[in-house]
Amino acid sequence: MYWFKTLTRFTTASKQRATTKFTPTLFSLQHIHHFTTAGDAAALPVSGLGPTKKTDKPRVVVLGSGWAGCSLMKGIDTSLYDIVCVSPRNHMVFTPLLASTCVGTLEFRSVAEPIGRIQPAISHEPGSFFFLADCKDVDAKNHEVHCQTITDGLQSLKPWDFKISYDKLVIASGAEASTFGINGVKEHAIFLREVYHAQEIRRKLLLNLMLSDVPGVSDEEKRRLLHCVVVGGGPTGVEFSGELSDFIMKDVRQRYSHVKDYIHVTLIEANDILSSFDDRLRVYATNQLTKSGVRLVRGTVKDVQPKKIVLSDGTDVPYGLLVWSTGVGPSSFVRNMDLPKAPGGRIGIDEWLRVPSAPDIFAIGDCSGYLESTGKSTLPALAQVAEREGKYLAGLLNKIGKAGGGHANSGADMELGDPFVYRHLGSMATVGNFKALVDLRQSKEAKGVSITGFASWLMWRSAYLTRVVSWRNRFYVTVNWLTTFVFGRDISRI
Questions:
Q1: Closest alpha carbon to 249 in 212, 294, 204
Q2: Per the count of CB atoms within 10 A, which of 34, 226, 272, 490 is most buried?
Q3: pTM, entire model
């Protein structure tokens, strides 16, 4: 019977897990202490996963659960390696569709894929794990990473430190939003990189809509509350502006008719929007956004205050919602690492994605860049770059593992084969009202096909639907799109 098979499988897995090599203190009774109050805390020995033996499978430690890290974990041969993932989130975010969740076109779960579904070995293999934690330091000499658990600020749960020994370390920790040192950005703006960012934007937007409808609110305050400002004219900023304009035109005007004339969207960009796209596509995007009611402003932000931003020319721009989307830069974790750096502050790598001065350490995704000695320029911080690097490195590690070089300090003299080569597949962006841009050129200077309009919108949706990680989420996305088309967007503030 099914329940008996499940019980048997669980019992077998438990026995296997009990034989896994841990540092003795990892799950000892001492660790009940970590679930006591902070006031009861006392110094404990640092626990963790110790070094593997030659008779064990080598351990690959992956820092991060973004495009690069998940693409790598999906491709790793778990018959050759144990996988340990350390990340502050237990899911991958399908970032191209994240803007759609802010206005209710898609639900949040449609763009989040659990790590256990991407690499099932993490859920059931005795030597593979996922740890909800931040990596604080990398000890390249001793092949260890130092981590600290995530507690979401709970006062009753004190974070604790632990160590993980690795045979191969893959740093795929991503990047953080660039603020350019502008005062007030982190305090008052909302970024659009994580699911909780989209949730915050949605709650703030709906709150402002409802507050503006309360009797006694002045017209000036209504205009401020319902002024949505987007800083950054890249694909994320443009797509969010397009989604927001659709939401205003098709939902706000029907369901918040009392304040429909007060809500506006402003997109601020220092240069041209969508600078990596073809000139013809940029002009088309500008015209479409303007037709949809998005006000385009060329300027740079000088200061961000609680209710307004100040531009470099002294202009004050009041806002009720401020979304910051001006690109990414190295995180503090990457900046503080004692590893060689590429131009721009990323972790320096060679053509095989290795960190040359640190044996058994690789870096992929937005946190890495080619060293100047390679003669290659740093690749853009795009999902397709990170995904391709992860897939390549998974194949490389599988090759190393099959040749017997999976354990620490082994395989240094192995022939690695062809280096990583990135070929750009093109760029896409939606601008709202069933319109999108598709640029299939290899680079900005190259010639190629570029498409606009409804046909490109169909291509945009089809391409991203096929790229969603699992069939489960493809089903969610399809149902959400159909539901929105028939019934409109969900405007519940939950």
A1: 294
A2: 226
A3: 0.87
